[in-house]
Design brief:
Number of helices: 5
Helix content: under 10%
CATH topology of the largest domain: Immunoglobulin-like
Bound molecules: copper (II) ion
Oligomer: single chain
Shape: globular
Number of domains: 4
CATH architecture of the largest domain: Sandwich
Largest sheet: 7 strands, mixed
CATH class of the largest domain: Mainly Beta
Length: 502
């Protein structure tokens, strides 16, 4: 099936590839000779686990009301005994500080671009004015800076930030630029959820490193088509880490910060955990679960109890196999290890009620829009308009064009959006800027809405064969926002459109 897509591409003749984020002219066939075949589906790289003997780092926190983020090339201890060249938002170390805010605060973040290419910051999941959202056209030049200032209107929840420049989002996020943005509010604080050392933000990312431990971004055509999957899975910037825990309840804020890899997260002891929130904050009530299929961009807020576990017990966070199309989900692997090293009384009771918010009725919607995200997959694929790599992926047949507004939306509108991957052959996690939504239903494929998809979300996964309907609550912030596939190779090769809120 992947082959069909490639043939569509090849028939367009010469293409432009995004190699290392730099457009390179090549002929589609010539550029792919190293694979020796026209079948560009490829085999997903096998995950290679480390020894789980490097300690899990927890990023320092920084107040979002006085934040300074300096994107730069630096070094980090990602693999045991090696120093990796990475990007980070501070000198020394990958990733960035965990920004913290209370609903109602004003964000004041100075972004300094010390990279040798344009960059910016997108506040993933946060509702900001259009000119503060990190639109691909709003970038800081190398050596330049941007100041982001906006009120925090979101509910308590696990949000994040990462670069969003046109054609370079995948590269910059892959090289290490990402961080958490945690919002709290009075409703959440009254719940007395596990806090401090018992509240762990965990960003899961996969990399393809060389023998020196460096992972420079150099996607080949298979990567651009499927999303770049790496052999090494990192948590908070470290390969196969471990963390010592007490026999108590922990809040794990799981973020899939990978470019393309989807994880089917579970605990190695098969224990049930409690889902308490997703992308847009807490659920109405906790939901028991034993696994979560988490796609790039998505978050899951969970309570895991190590209560009753004897000192010395080891539990892994693992990814189980799943049916994720032809390229993903074929392998089970461990991601990180929890080691119970302290016996403690776990007197935490999971609250029965978490949050009070409205469920949007379908009848509230005033407009329906449908988006074909199948990229022409099942019908022989045309590789987008123009036939070059930057238009390899599309939505409704259109690839990203900064000069074109694809959808015009009335401020404050409630709309039903359908992401139709019925004919598709690849998974697509679809992400909206400027609005949150609730998932209404999923038909085809897995055929249901999953527990971790309850509540407010900003990213939803449409697997091959699926059609997912969401109800979107647009805000009052007018201006141009993007929406796109959060498989970052798909995004950077065209799978992004623009909407104008008027
Ligand atoms: Cu996609």
């Amino acid at each position: 099936m992947e082959r069909r897509k490639f043939i569509g591409l090849a028939s367009a003749g010469a293409g432009v590839a995004l190699l290392g984020g730099t457009p390179v002219l090549l002929t589609a066939l010539g550029g792919c000779k190293k694979h020796g075949t026209m079948d560009m589906g490829g085999v997903a790289p096998k995950v290679v686990e480390g020894a789980f003997d490097m300690a899990l780092p927890v990023p320092p926190t920084m107040s979002a009301s006085a934040a300074k983020l300096t994107a730069q090339r630096t070094t980090a201890s990602v693999f045991k005994g090696k120093t990796s060249s990475v990007s980070g938002y501070q000198s020394g170390g990958i990733l960035g500080a965990t920004l913290t805010a209370t609903k109602g605060d004003t964000v004041n973040a100075v972004f300094q671009n010390s990279l040798n290419e344009v960059s910016n910051v997108h506040w993933h999941g946060l509702l900001t004015p259009a000119n503060m959202d990190g639109h691909p056209k709003d970038v800081a030049q190398p050596g330049g800076s941007l100041t982001y200032s906006f009120p925090v209107v979101n509910r308590a929840g696990t949000y994040w930030y990462h670069p969003h420049p046109d054609l370079k989002t995948a590269k910059q996020a892959y090289e290490g630029l990402a961080g958490f943005f945690l919002v709290t509010d009075s409703e959440e604080q009254a719940l007395n959820l596990p806090s401090g050392d018992y509240d762990m933000p965990l960003v899961i990312q996969d990399k393809r490193a060389d023998s020196s431990g460096n992972f420079s971004y150099a996607p080949d055509m298979t990567d651009l088509m499927n999303g770049l999957l790496g052999e090494s899975v990192l948590v908070n910037g470290v390969h196969s880490p471990f963390v010592e825990v007490a026999s108590k309840t922990y809040r794990l804020r799981l973020l899939n910060g990978s470019n393309g890899r989807i994880y089917n997260l579970a605990l190695s002891n098969g224990e049930t955990f409690m889902l308490i929130g997703s992308d847009g904050g807490l659920f109405a009530a906790p939901i028991a679960a034993t696994s979560i299929l988490l796609a790039p961009g998505e978050r899951a807020d969970v309570l895991v109890s190590f209560g009753g576990q004897a000192v010395g017990t080891e539990v892994f966070l693992e990814s189980k196999t799943f049916d994720g199309g032809e390229y993903q989900g074929k392998q089970a692997f461990n991601i990180m290890k929890f080691k119970v090293t302290e016996s403690s009384t776990d007197n935490f009771d999971v609250p029965t009620v978490l949050s009070d918010y409205a469920t949007l009725p379908e009848a509230a919607a005033t407009k329906n829009r449908s988006f074909d995200v199948s990229n022409g997959g099942g019908h022989g694929g045309h590789g987008g308009h123009g036939g070059n790599m930057m238009t390899m992926h599309n939505i409704n047949g259109d690839s990203y064009d900064e000069s074109r507004i694809d959808e015009t939306i009335t401020a404050g509108a409630t709309e039903i959006w359908t992401f139709d991957n019925t004919e598709g052959i690849d998974p697509h996690p679809m992400h909206l800027h400027g609005a949150l939504f609730q998932v209404l239903d999923r038909t085809g494929g897995r055929g249901q809405v999953f527990p971790h998809e309850k509540g407010w979300k900003d990213t939803v996964l449409a697997l091959p064969g699926e059609k997912v309907r969401v109800i979107v609550a647009f805000g009052q912030e007018k201006g141009v926002f993007v929406f796109h596939c959060h498989n970052l190779e798909h995004e950077d090769t065209g799978m992004m459109l623009q909407m104008e809120i008027v």
